Each structure stands twice: as C-alpha cells, then as structure tokens.
Amino acid sequence: MGKTILEVKDLSVSFRMYDRGLTQYDLNVISNLSVTVNEGEIMVIVGSSGSGKSVLAHAVLGILPSNAQISGEINYDGKPLTAAVRKEKVGSEIIMIPQSVTYLDPLMKVGRQVQGLKGSKAMQQQAFRRYGLKDSVAGMYPFQLSGGMTRRVLISTATISDARLILADEPTPGLSQDIAEETMRNFRELADEGRGILMITHDIDIALLVADRIAVFYDGRTVDVCNREDFLKGGDALKHPYTRALWAALPRNGFQAVAPEDFMKEDQP
C-alpha cells in the first residue's frame, strides 16, 4: 500500500435550514468523520441512506451548496485541499463518478465528453467496448441514453483519465451483474496501477470483490474501518455492533435483521 492520497480528519458538515416562521436551525449531517485513501487502495464506504456518504464526496470536491457549514481537515497528497488546489486538480488528478446520471453536459455528444481534455478517440472506443456500449453511442446526446447507458458512460469518463484519486458514488445501480463485475475488475486494475479509489455503495457484496478496506458510516460518523478479510469473516472479526449488523443483513448471511436499539445500546460507553 502506498502513501496517503486523501485524508479526511474530523470533518463536520451541517446545513443552515429554515423552519416555519423563517426560524433558522442547523441540520447536522456529518460529525467528526475521518477516513483515508491510500495509493493502490480501494476504500469502500458503506452505511445506510442519510449516513453522510455522498456528502463526504461532495465536500472533497467542494461542491456542497452555499448553506453548508464545514469544519475539519481535507488533505490531498499531504496538503490542504483548498479551492485553488481543487481548481487545479479536480477533473485531472481527482475525478468523480457521480451517483446522479444528470452530470453529463446535455449539449455535448457523449463520445467527446468521455474523451475529455486528454483522452483519445481510441481510448474512448476501448472503454465503450469494455462496458458494452456500441460505437454509435459516441454520437448520441445524454438525453438519448437510458439510465444504465448513462452510468456506463460516466464510468468510462473516469476510467480513461490519468486521475490519482477516483471518487465513485454508487457506480453500479442500473448495471447488469456482468457489467457491474467488470467495473469492479477495472477499479481493481486502476488501484493496482497506484491510484486511490473511494467507492460509496449500498451493494456491499459487489464491493467485496475488490475492496481493500471497508469504512462503515453511521449517523454521520465513521464507526468502524476493517479489512476486507475481516468483513468476509464477520462475527467477532468485526469490532463495531453496527458493522456486525450490516454483515448479518447481507443476502449471503440470510438477511438477518438487527433492531437499531440493539446495536445502538451495545455501542454506548
């Protein structure tokens, strides 16, 4: 494992909201969250909806809305990830595969978007073949694509880049099992080349095919970080009760249900 590419330390994010009568209040989404991504590593972020996974990715990229209030540290390659650094690095060294399929430019053909500033037509064609996209797709506009096709285009855009850090926010929904597994193999190859990948997903089983470490988010904080081998073993190999609850709920483990009050009670000091 190489050096740390991304370090998030004690990150807190809240949003200034308005209630009835224009009363202001702060909605806390992330509290003192920490996570790292190293060269050559696939770090997988798992947790329930609303646990702060996508907010983390948006905070790294600096694309949170104007009502967001942020504290803590986000470092890239050992230095603070400032607005100036983001302007230089995002889109070249730092790439995101977004959860939403609306991120493509609606006025540009998708082939040109995948090629970007540095990619070639040959690289784009190779990526399309890998993800089961016909050559004719390159001449289409985003509105002409299905949801699954759009996601494969977004994955192609990121994987042909020279990025050192790839943020993949739910990259597999809408993909067939074969294409999802091919995507994971592609991520593994990219990580083995020395890139760092932060993958956010609900599909733990598919992520376990390639993950190095699993970071478990609950209620806006990191409650556990474990190696892939420990997560596969489950049971006593997992430190946190919520992690054990997630493991028990996997299809391979019979969808065992654990009441929230049970693992929250066990987590009390």
Write structural notes for this entry.
The chain has helices at 53-61, 83-89, 110-115, 121-130, 147-159, 177-192, 204-207, 228-233, 241-248, 260-266, and strands at 4-18, 24-38, 42-46, 68-76, 79-80, 94-97, 165-169, 196-200, 213-218, 221-227. It starts with a strand and ends with a helix. 38% of the residues are buried. The chain is 32% helix and 27% strand. The longest helix is centred in the last third of the chain and has 16 residues, at 177-192. It has a domain at 38-70 and 82-93 and 163-234: 3-Layer(aba) Sandwich (Rossmann fold). The strands form two sheets. The chain has a six-stranded mixed beta sheet with strand order 6-7-8-3-9-10, with helices on both faces. Strands 2-1-4-5 form a four-stranded antiparallel beta sheet, with helices on one face. It is of the alpha/beta class. It has ten helices and ten strands.
